[in-house]
């Protein structure tokens, strides 16, 4: 199979979908890799590394998109890329369709096969291709939140760690999954007072066994959230419902209960966010203020640390990319139910129910598309 890797063109996105080591693995397995010139530079990988691993370099994105049977990306195709998608082309990337109806409609119109990293799901419920970026984003959320608490950024001037004789700051984490757990590790490690809220008692019991004493666990209700935000210096939104929009847990009215200069970092922003007033921002302009509360809504947080993120992402995606390339998407999905869960759109039809539900659109079970089409 010919696999194409275009350069990411989303604003301030520095990651690349594959490392030279990944290219070597694919080419040794008999596949061809065409990568756009300069695609890996921001992650520390120059064209010569890719050539040495067996890739061919394309001068521009048009060649990559036009020739590749499968496109590997990091972020969803943005509007400038929509006309380049074509019928039956496999696009393997993060899509987060439920947060964007225009993107969903563009992919439907293209006839491409959209395999979304974020909905590949194991029997255990684990999301193996979302996990590494959730780990990065959870850890970054604390350092970004701590930065914007500084007074010269408009924050309240609180040092999360505190000092002897002064109380540490309070970090409220909504959701005890991968993002929330990693955020809690960093926040607790610097000495903050940490509260994790979740609706799963089983998860809370697990976290109680593994978290340090300065992390407290609380069952999440609307009443409890309203009470906890009153003295929170940093709120981290970490709620994920795979493939569908995140629930709004903090309303605009709730913000009036918070102290001026408090900070919200909503990691769930690419799924619509769990704070009513959040909207996607960029690394150029990461924050804005509503009701005297600083909102951080960068939708590609891991893109700020591309070296780490690219390596972590490729470690997870490469085995699935190999299956798709070796067997074709249909046979790969028949053999691997986890990968089949990643198929969101096929032949102009939505095959992931959460995406269809988000927009009130028709859902078509994937099974009807898994049979190989008849050849003339």
Which key phrases capture this entry?
single chain, 376 residues, alpha/beta, Rossmann fold, 2 domains, eight-stranded mixed beta sheet, seven-stranded mixed beta sheet, 12 helices, 15 strands, 16% strand
How would you describe the overall organization of this protein?
With 376 residues, this protein is α/β, with parallel strands linked by helices. It folds into 2 domains: 2-119 and 306-369, 3-Layer(aba) Sandwich (Rossmann fold); 131-299, NAD(P)-binding Rossmann-like Domain (Rossmann fold), CATH 3.40.50. The protein is 33% helix and 16% strand. The chain contains 12 helices and 15 strands. The chain has helices at residues 20-28, 47-52, 61-67, 101-110, 131-148, 178-189, 201-210, 222-229, 252-255, 306-335, 337-340, 353-359; strands at 2-5, 32-36, 56-58, 70-72, 90-93, 113-116, 170-174, 193-198, 215-219, 234-237, 263-266, 287-290, 293-296, 343-346, 349-350. The strands form 2 sheets. An 8-stranded mixed beta sheet has the order 3-2-1-4-5-6-14-15, sandwiched between helices. Strands 9-8-7-10-11-13-12 form a 7-stranded mixed beta sheet, sandwiched between helices. Helix 5 (131-148) crosses helix 6. The two termini are 22 Å apart.
């Amino acid at each position: 199979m010919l696999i194409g890797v275009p350069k990411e063109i989303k604003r301030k996105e520095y990651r690349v979908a594959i490392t030279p080591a990944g290219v070597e693995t694919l080419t040794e397995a008999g596949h061809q890799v065409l990568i756009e010139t300069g695609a890996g530079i921001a992650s520390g990988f120059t064209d010569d590394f890719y050539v040495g691993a067996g890739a061919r370099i394309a001068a521009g994105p048009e060649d990559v998109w036009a020739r590749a049977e499968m496109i590997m990306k990091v972020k969803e195709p943005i509007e400038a890329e929509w006309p380049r998608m074509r019928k039956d082309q496999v696009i393997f990337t993060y899509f987060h369709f439920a947060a964007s109806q225009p993107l969903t409609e563009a992919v439907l119109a293209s006839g491409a096969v959209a395999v979304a990293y974020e909905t590949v799901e194991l029997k255990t419920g684990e999301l193996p291709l979302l996990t590494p970026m959730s780990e990065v984003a959870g850890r970054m959320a604390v350092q970004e939140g701590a930065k914007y608490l500084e007074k010269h950024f408009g924050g309240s001037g609180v040092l999360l760690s505190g000092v002897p004789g002064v109380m540490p700051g309070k970090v409220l984490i909504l959701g005890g999954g991968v993002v929330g757990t990693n955020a809690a590790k960093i926040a607790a490690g610097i000495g903050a007072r940490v509260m994790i809220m979740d609706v799963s008692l089983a998860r809370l019991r697990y976290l109680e066994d593994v978290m340090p004493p300065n992390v407290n666990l609380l069952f999440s209700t609307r009443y409890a959230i309203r009470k906890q935000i009153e003295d929170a210096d940093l709120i981290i939104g970490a709620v994920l419902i795979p493939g569908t929009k995140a629930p709004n847990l903090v309303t605009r009215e709730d913000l009036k209960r918070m102290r001026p200069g408090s900070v919200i970092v909503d990691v769930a922003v690419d799924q619509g966010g769990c704070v009513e007033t959040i909207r996607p921002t960029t690394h150029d302009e990461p924050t804005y203020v509503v009701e005297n509360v600083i909102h951080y809504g960068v939708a590609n947080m891991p893109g700020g640390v591309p070296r780490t993120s690219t390596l972590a992402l490729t470690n997870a995606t490469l085995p699935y990319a190999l299956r798709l390339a070796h067997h074709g998407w249909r046979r790969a999905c028949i053999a691997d139910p986890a990968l089949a869960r990643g198929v969101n759109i096929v032949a102009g039809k939505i095959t992931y129910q959460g995406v269809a539900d988000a927009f009130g659109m028709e859902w078509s079970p994937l099974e009807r598309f898994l049979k190989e089409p008849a050849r003339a």
